[in-house]
Description:
The chain is an alpha+beta fold and 323 residues long. 43% of the residues lie in helices and 29% in strands. It contains five helices and twelve strands. The strands form two sheets. The chain has a six-stranded antiparallel β-barrel. It is rod-shaped and about 135 Å long.
Amino acid sequence: MLVTIILAVGAGIGWSYLKFHHDDQHALTLYGNVDIREVNLGFRVAGKLSKLAYDEGDAVKQGELLAQLDDEPYRNLVARAAAQAQSLREHLRLLETGNRPQEIAQAKALLHEREVASANARHLFQRAEQSALAKGISNQERDNAEAGYLEANAQLASARQNLSLLAAGFREEDIAQAKADLAQAEAALADARLQQQDTTLTAPADGIIFTRAQEAGAILPVGATVFTLSLQHPVWIRAYVHEPDLGHIHTGGKVTIVNDSHPEQQYNGHIGFISPRAEFTPKTVETAQLRTALVYRLRVVVDNPDQGLLQGMPVTIRLASQP
């Protein structure tokens, strides 16, 4: 009986060993380093730095105000652009509305006055012509009457043209030019407002302030780095796999990740990218194979990152290959 029990226990241990050994043969262990994205933050406009809201090591949320430039020059720019746009807007409205009724009425009155003057000059000319035929007046007087009649007709024609222009309003070309001028002024106003908005620096994403590069009072050029932000998402692991193991992994494959500082803390992740090009193993990668062996770079996306994963930290990646 005792022999039977010993044999059964031995068989169980042997089966467990073989199963464990078989499973272990179908598991890949890779080594890599944490790769956290960083972004250099600065202003799109130049100016005097008036306020810094955070310091190195502070956690920030997306959209929070990080820094502020003195925006008085940009507020003045907006005011000037707004005034110019309003002036051109009123000019366009004047052109589209046309002339005032009082101006048209005045032109009509002038036309009537010129019509009366022309009729009277014609009458005087006719009388002078008849008198000249009867030798009642000299030829000079007759010529003066004719000249007065012609002048009155010219003034009448001018009054008619003036009334026609006032009634027709402004030319389409003038209105089109005014519209183009207004559009240009409104674009300049929008640009001025955008520059004023750019005097505030906000966090583009959740993260940790890694570097504070400026202090209040500094005169900054465009694009000068004020903060370096370490992003909380995404957190990647840069790792490398040897060519013989490449067929056992695939994009989207699940992995587990541990680090030396807290080996009991396990992170979940998946393979997000497999490089299509082979390269030599970087010297920073810890591997048991020869460093001259060709490998393929992997990007492992950590699904549940926290503050325990720091930039450059070495980690161990375990993933189950396909049988």
